[in-house]
Amino acid sequence: MSSMSKEAKLATLRAKTDREVLVLIRKELDRGLALANVAAAKGSPSHAHAEEAFDMAKALLPTIPNLRQRDRLKLEVLLKALRTTLDARPERNALQYGAGSGSGA
Question: Which of 28, 38, 47, 105 is deepest in the core (most CB within 10 A)?
Answer without folding.
Answer: 28
